[in-house]
Structure formats: structure tokens, C-alpha cells
Amino acid sequence: MPRLSFSAGPFFRKFLISTIRGYLGFTLRTTRWTFSIDPEARKFLTCEDGRTAVVAFWHEVLPLTPALWWWAEPQNPSMRLHVLISRNRDGRLIADIVGKWRIWSIAGSSDTRGKNKGGAAALRSLRSRLRHGGIVAITPDGPRGPRREAQQGATALAALVKKPIIPVGATCRGLRLNSWDKMILPLPFGRGHFVCGAPLTLSRDKELQAEHSADRLLAEAITQVMAEAEQPWVDHPGRQKEKIWLTPLSLQPSRVWHWVATGLAPALPFLLRWRQVRGKELPDRVREKMGFASRARPAGPLIWFHAASVGELVSILPLVQRCLEKKTNVTVLLTTGTVTAARLLQHRLTHPQLVHQFVPLDVPRWARRFLANWQPQAVVFTESELWPNLIGLCHQQNIPVALVNGRMSERSFKNWRRFRPVARRMLERFAWIAARSDADAQHFQQLGARSLAITGDLKTAAPPLPVDQVALQSVQQQLAGRPVFLAASTHEGEEDALRPVLQILQARFPSLLTIIVPRHPERGAAVSALFGGAPRRAQGQVPARTDSVWVCDTLGELGLFYRLADFAFIGNSLPDVRTGGGGHNPFEPARLGCALATGPRIQNFQEAFAILGESVVTVSTAADLVDWVITMLENPARRKACAEQAQAVATANMALPEQLADKILALLPA
């Protein structure tokens, strides 16, 4: 008969964990709970205003304590609970049972009789959790007793981090097991009672009398609330009392979106193939969009940053750089959604600790595959990247998620307001949100965001766009002092609108050179054809003296072109644009001293243009644009004043990346 020990062991353990978890979940859900909570203790149990504490209860009520977490977590889903559980076999079994309810364990117990039980390492981990906004729970008489006698761990930890201890007592309809702690085994369809006493601030001062030691005071406090829990009919003055049914917090912000994405998954590879044929995906990396990694995960801590496209990428690069400088052992995984952004990253930032991947589509199975491979310790999304399945899975795996440069336009706010429950469940899971502006912060808050951090636009804090000094000097010599007008980041339809403008300008200013930089370099040939085969920089062509247009269809060189021109028009903003418009980042040219004009369709950067105010001119027609260019060429003093005004605004918030980098690094475990 074959031996079954190699397979039966793990199988039986999984069966045992599922059975116990299922039984506990059923009994705790079907129990009618009464909570009697001290008002000050409530503030700590829900991490109100960043408060944290040590929660202490006797080992006998351990099976009941998930109910306390189910009560607390919905009131502040961004908080985390860590429980000190013995690292022996029984302790690991308990940790796996409660782990699915996002009760995270730290392995260890008090070192006694010269034996190293992981107490010192566990103490350091617990201290880190408390200092970074988490709650930790300890059974002072665990894991082996004596029953209801507090050991030194809880009071030592509280004194070390200067945090209070919340004594907790609980009971319910159940059986008392014949174990050292007389553990309560709950029974279904009963009643239960939790009592949370006032926060204790206990000293470890040596002058304390033995009979009044911190450990003894803690034991007395827990025993007292246990006695109160066993008398649910007694009202205690000053305690807030509520009777409720409990259930674990749902991990999915939207079950509908979860199943829609799952149902669409079989068709999405065909969509990716279609995009690949159109040049919007890289053939050798398209599987990254399905969660398959193309590189191995480096060892050590890893922060995942996500920027959808070029604009978001440019805004967070200074932030990424600060994190890499401040924490040299950390790896940054930077994901983008577009090929253009990936190519720009290669030009802008290379670092041995920086890894680029394409972000997986928001399909639950693909997202799980991505997270299982990269195992990030912290996640940072950018601007309006809100993906319910990814955010929910990060929360399920206890990965803190932050949002930087959070953008919630009026239009997006109205759309999300139609799905307010989904928005609330998604936003309340963020550890914190750093909004781009006060208006964005207000929109996030109205939709359910709980923790709002520093407000400020990263686009106003970025360093000037880089430039190759050799290339700059070379082009300046080739242009030989010609006046330069720049049309930057133009989209399809706008070049057609520019043709009559340039004809008028060429007749009045024969030496004027217009540089056109299409947003998508692959359109360079088509743009060149519109202007009679104008020279293209991507082909190594340089404008002759008789050329009035130069198509610069290269990637990552906007810093060069903004330095060549004293005034620039920002594309994707004219009424003629066929992509819907929205504008582009005006701070990039403003930071380099360009006077600016834009079309009226700037909804994606409305706040940025509002900040720049009158230093930016809005042109709605070809005649408006002609008049503006003529004014800039004939009135250098006005051009200089507009440029200086815009530059002062665009460089006013340079400390923001440093502040946000500190907050991001604080999300990492010790």
C-alpha cells in the first residue's frame, strides 16, 4: 500500500484550516453582538486621526476576536491589524485561519528560560506597525499561560512606542474547552458581548511597586472588562453601546466589475493582438498586459509605481528618483499603459534599481498573477488611475496603496457619483490620497476618501525637462539665430488648422521657422506631407534657410525644442482636434521660460492653466493664433513678462516630491 504522508499532510492541513475558518465565520456571523466601548477607546480602535494602540485580550477569547475586527474595519478600511501569534505549529495554523480576514500575524512570543522564541524580532516588527499607523493585538497570557497572568510583552511594547493599551473582554454563547486557557468555542445563533475599556497608559518605571506593576495593572484591567462582558444586561456609564450583526468587509469594490472583467478576459487577448498590429503594443512584451512578467523580481523591498501615459509618467519621475535616492536597497517597479510612455522612460531615467513593466489589464486572474510575481510592499497610483480589481486585491493582500497627484475632474466626479458605493469602497481602501488641488481633494472626500494627505500638483514641482547640451548647441548653430515658433504636442486635425496660420506668418516673417512636434512620433510622415514634405528630425533632416516648417517627430526631446523657442502653442486643445482635446501639461514649457498659448479645449489640465492665469493666452481661431504670434514677435518685452510670470508659478512647489517620498517610504514594513 503506498504511503500517503507526503500528500496527506498538506491536504489535511488545508482541509482543517478551511473547516475551522468556515465554522468560525458561520458562528460569528450568526451571533447577535453587543459592543460596549469607551469613547476614547473607539478613537484608537478605528485609528481616528492616525491614532494607534495595542489591543490586549486573554487567550481564551481568541476565537471571538475576528468579530471585533469586522466591527472596526468598515469604519476605516485603510487601517491594518497585526496580531502577535506564536511561531509554533499551532500558532501558524491560527495565523492561516484568520489571514483571509486580513488579520495579519507577526510570528513570535516572549523569550523565556533562555529560549529564543522570536520575541525580540517580533517586538521590532510590532513597533514598526504601531509607528506607521497600524493596530497590533496581543494575548498577554499566551501562548502557554499561566491563564490570565500578563507577561511582559504587551506593556513593554506600549511603553517603548509610547502608545496606550486598550483592554478588551468578550464572551458569547459557546463551550469552554478543556484547555489551559479554557478557550471559548462559539456556537451559532447566540448572543455575544464585547467590552473595550478606557485606554491605559502604563509605565515601565522601576520605581513601581511590585504589587502595582504595569503587568499587574494590565491583567486587572482585562479581567475587569471580561467580568463586564459576562454581564451584558448591565449598563456602564460613559460606554457607547450598540447591537449589530457582523460580517467581514467585502474585498471587492465592485462585484459587477469583477465578473464583467472576468467574463471579458477570453476576448481581451484578441484586443491586445489588434493593438499590436496597430503598433500600440510591443510584440515581445504584450503578455505583460496579462500579468506575465518578462523579468525576474529582484530581492529585497519593492515599491510599485503606476503611471498610465506620458503626462503621468513625467509628473512622478522626480518622486521615483527621490525614493531611490533615500532608500538605496529598494527596487522600484514602474508600470505604464502605453508604449510611448515606456520609451520616454528609457530616455528620462535609468537606474539599476528601476524595473519597467506594462500594467496588467484589470482582470482579477491577471492582476493576481502580477501581484504574486512582483509582491510589492507598497503601491503608488497616479492621478486618475482607479482600477477596482487591482485596488481590492492589494487590500486583500495587505499591501498599502497610495494615490499621488490625485485628479478628479468635475466630469469624472459626476460619473463616479452615479456609482458612489463602488467609489467609496475603492477610495476608502487607500492608505492616503495626495490630491492635485483643493477642488480635487473635495471631490475625493465627497466620494468617500478618508485619508487625504498633502495637496499639490507634482507637475509644478518637477525639474526642467532634460536636454542634450551637445544637440542643443548643434541645432542653435544650424538655425543661425532665426526666430522660432513652436507648436508642441499637436494631435491629428490640428496641423490642418495650422496650415493657413503658417502661410500668413511666412508672408509677414520670411525668416520665421515653425517647429511642429506631433504628440505621437509615428505621425511624422503624415505631418510632413501636409506641409509639402517638410524636413523631419527623425530622418536626420535639418531645415534649410528656405524651409519654414520643421517636423520634429522624435521622442523625449521636448526639452530641446522648448529651449529653442521663446514662445509656444500647446496642442490637443484646438476645436479642430480629432481626439477630443484636453490639452497638455503647460508647466513643462513654462518652467523653461516660454510664453504660452493654448486652444480652448483644456479640460484635462484646467486646474494647471487656471494656476498660470493670464500668463497663458487662449486662442480659439486661426486669426487669434496669428495675432498672438505677431504680438510675441513684435513685442519682446511683453513676451518676456508673460514667460517670467509663468515660470515663477511653475517652479513654486519644489519641496513636494521630497515630502511625498517620505510618506511613500513610510508605507514600507520595517
Walk me through this protein's architecture.
The protein is α/β, with parallel strands linked by helices. The protein folds into three domains: 25-244, Glycerol-3-phosphate (1)-acyltransferase; 255-461 and 656-665, 3-Deoxy-D-manno-octulosonic-acid transferase, N-terminal domain (Rossmann fold); 469-650, Glycogen Phosphorylase B (Rossmann fold), CATH 3.40.50.2000. The protein is built from 25 helices and 22 strands. The strands form four sheets. Strands 4-3-5-2-6-9-1-10 form an eight-stranded mixed beta sheet, with helices on both faces. A six-stranded parallel beta sheet has the order 13-12-11-14-15-16, sandwiched between helices. Helix 1 crosses helix 4 and helix 12 crosses helix 13 (388-396). The chain is elongated and about 100 Å long. Residues 1-7 and 205-211 have low confidence and may be disordered.
Rg: 31 Å
Q: So what's the overall shape?
A: elongated
Low-confidence stretches: 1-7, 205-211
The percent range for helix content is: 40-55%
Give the count of structural domains.
3
Mean pLDDT: 88
The CATH first-level class of the largest domain comes to Alpha Beta
Tell me how many strands there are: 22
The total count of helices amounts to 25
Task: Quickly give the structural class.
Answer: alpha/beta
Major beta sheet, strand line-up: 4-3-5-2-6-9-1-10
The amount of beta strand, in percent, is 15-25%
Separation of the first and last Cα atoms = 50 Å
